[in-house]
Amino acid sequence: MTTAVDSRATSSVGSSAVPAPLSAIGRWLTTADHVRVGASLVVSAFVWALVAGALGAVLGVERLDAGSALVDADALAQLFSLHRFALVFGVLAPLMLGVSVLTVPAQLHAANLSVPRLAAFGWWAWLAGSIIALVSYIGNGGPGGGDGRYVETYLLGLAIVILGLVAVAVSLATTVLTRRNGNRLADIPVGAFAALVSAVGVTLTFPVALGTVAYLWVDFVNARVAFGGGDMFDSWLGWLMREPQTLLLAAPALGILADAAARTAKSRQPLRGVVLVGVGISAVVVFSSVTQQAHVFATGKTPFETLQSFVPFALFNVLPLLAPCFVVLLSLLALKSGTSALSGAFVASFLGVGMVFTGLVGSAAMHLEALDLIGTVFGEATLVYVVYGTVLAAVGAITLHAGAVTGRALPDTPVLLLALSGFAATVLASLPHFVAGFLDQPAAVAAGYDDSGFVGIANVLVGVGHALMALVVLAFAGLFFKSRRGEAATDRYATEVSA
Amino acid sequence: MSVPALTAGPARRTSTVFVATGFVSAAAAALMGGMLAIWLDFRAKAPTRIAGDGATIIKDWLKKDITIPEVAANTMMFTFVIACVMAQWAVYSGRRNDKSHTTLALAVTLFTGLALLNVQAALWMQMDIVLRDDAYQTMFYTVTGTMFALIASAVVYSLVAMFWVLAGRTSDHDVLAAHALYWYATYGIFAALWFVVYVQK
Description:
- The structure holds two protein chains of two kinds.
- Chain A is mostly helical.
- Helices cover about 70% and strands about 0% of the residues of chain A.
- Chain A contains 17 helices and no strands.
- Chain A has helices spanning about 5-10, 20-30, 35-60, 75-105, 115-140, 150-180, 190-220, 235, 245-265, 270-280, 290, 305-320, 320-335, 345-365, 375-405, 410-440, 455-485.
- Chain B contains five helices and two strands; from the N terminus they run αββαααα.
- Chain B has helices at about 15-45, 70-95, 100-125, 135-165, 175-200, and strands at about 50, 55-60.
- In chain B, strands 1-2 form a two-stranded antiparallel sheet.
- In chain B, helix 1 packs parallel to helix 5 (about 175-200) and helix 4 (about 135-165) packs antiparallel against helix 5 (about 175-200).
- Chain B is elongated and about 70 Å long.
- Chains A and B meet through helix 6 and helix 7 of A and helix 1 and helix 4 of B.
């Protein structure tokens, strides 16, 4: 059912005058084909997922013994910061945008993206920016880093990353609005609708961060009197890398689940309008860029004071929970109303959205003052839940659309096993830190806490979970490339039914 | 049960360039909106002290020796109107396939944009403040520098649209409409900056 254009078929570059590998590289460098741009983003995000997994494993080992240090304190602070950068800007954002770029044109029966060159520019900008940021971390230049030149480089890299992601988001949002073949938004697949919600959210919120980066850079290079230098970067930009903002980036996962449920059940999504409303609710997260602060709920001396505290807490922490909640429940209903069977794509995306939901529930709990969890590893765990949840959803999306987009379907059983392994990895990499948060293990440090009892075990489990997730990503990549060779698997999702 | 997923609805033409420009304009508005919000936050939180007369409260934000050239700032505000009118004239002429007037309108828009950049540079020179002296200076140069970049991007858009028309693409009116939209958006963004930074200070 795909209508994706394969520029390889139409290109005249590969003539005998140019060696084949060179012409292939040339085509890739200059491509504006959505399959290639999307695949580039997804593959790069998976590489970053390996980096994030390895970093998580190293940090788990480092935290095993709070009394001894394998890495010196400055480098450790940089590693924690790099881990967060890798999770959000290396994995979460490019993976979800990449999957959308890869699949949305096919969902809309469009040949390519709108303004495809902008999307291609966005991919290259994101790649360049993320490499610049990585180099700056290596040179001790992340937030709070000791080398001023590399700290400036970090801000430059971050600005380019944000610019690139906004460019991809603009192209994606324009595609959904202009390439619908005259259909109403309510009639397009939920996956495309969720991509639109996410893309518009990125377009409206990331520039706010870009403006902040501009202030930070000018201040850092000059007086350092207004914004407090490198140590304060996180206090200005932290909102961008924590819940609920991450839900905006993870919103395409909701669409993936709805589409996977409908295609697995081979029936149309029941209460489709409610699903769209559910996905749309995630758009309230846009307001996180307006307030840029944590909304903690604390009981006041009077009922009015309590209400005053509860309303912003509920708006920013409880309302977004409805988005995955609606989609999960209605996807189960879709499965019940059609062919009651499980598929690799459905299981992967269902578990993925479940993990995102768990992360958001954790984030809401963290903002209850009575639980006293802010500043503990509990917050790290919520981010890992959301990011690894989207990795699982991406596995589901690639499985769902591989046949249509690339012409080679993935075998379902190995995907099912990988989804279950990914689920185990996600739980291992985050749940122990939920518990350790209640035991007051502080975030982003590897010393100054009691590592006896469960806390020590929790850190080991978390390290194992991250390493396992890296292996799952590697195994999925291996499965994908293996499926490109040999006999093609049957595409069980090759149906006209979509949510 | 098999249900068709997505059937073609009635044909409806939607301009890709116009919609994309709308999103870019929204992103630019969010960029400046965020920067002005931080500006307002800093200004509100600037420390206050009692003046020598014991009666006046002084806010340590804009130093006494810094003078904002309001004539230059107001000139920018009015020059933007000219740019927007010219951009709209290009749309009007384009719809009538009047290539010469479309090109002229775009050229005037382009040069008006260059004039805006010139006024901004003149404004910086007239103020003659040192960037690294204080929070106000740092933020002033950042926010006006960002505005400078946005105006420069509008000038580049005018240049591209002009080449587009000169190359004979007069039938594609959407590019001209999108170009006008971007100029309107840039004007709106500047109006917000003008009010916060140059009027309210």
